Amino acid sequence: MTTNVSNNAALDGMYWDNTSKAADKNNGALTQSDFFALLTQQLAYQDPTKPVENDQMIAQMTNFTMADGIGQLNDNFKSLSASMTSNQALQASSLVGRSVLTQSDEIVFTGETLSRGNIVVDKPASLMQVRIENESGELVRSFSVENPKTGKNDFVWDGTDANDETVAAGSYKIKVEVSYTDGETASLPVFVYTPVGSVSMNGTGGGITLNLLGLGAVKLSDVLEVSYS
């Protein structure tokens, strides 16, 4: 497509060609060659009676070199970041099939192995009650612990309900209430072991995500412990 710029006979045949624009390989960024070209032009057009001082020229050349070096350093960091992400993904892939400990308000029963976890009691307590519910909020199984120890308390659920019948495999809600010896009550967070189904890479800077069976995705940084089963 062409666009005439004037109707003057002296300008006949002159036009702007919008289709032949050269591609900008550097996306408008100045390179070191551009900097030195500018420096050369500066020297060529300087006032002969007031030439550029040597220290000024050296300072400009140093700045050009530093700018180019910083650009190369950024490229190297991007390459290093991509390499580290790949290495993390390779290491995380070894977790597939193993169980990891994360904080969750759900616990998974696979139908093949026991469901395990732990609860941290932060001060002396007289009673700790654990409730396991289905997705509708109906009670499946509950158990209580008198005088739980201060610190980590491990627990195991064999996947049976109140009638000792095995429930269907899947994820269940878990809630913990504790009664302290000072008369206060509180809900406590629960930490559960869940099998890792797969590992995902979320791109450069996105980190590694573990896809847990029945619970979905969690960040690798959220994993507190790794178990063999």
UniProtKB/TrEMBL annotation:
Hydrolase in keyword set: no
Residues covered by the FlgD/Vpr Ig-like domain: 104-180
FlgD Tudor-like domain segment(s): 87-223
InterPro entries to which the protein is assigned, alphabetical: FlgD, FlgD/Vpr_Ig-like, FLgD_Tudor
Keywords: Bacterial flagellum biogenesis, Cell projection, Cilium, Flagellum
Spans traversing the lipid bilayer: none
Purpose: Required for flagellar hook formation. May act as a scaffolding protein.
Family the entry assigns: Belongs to the FlgD family.
Name the record gives this protein: Basal-body rod modification protein FlgD
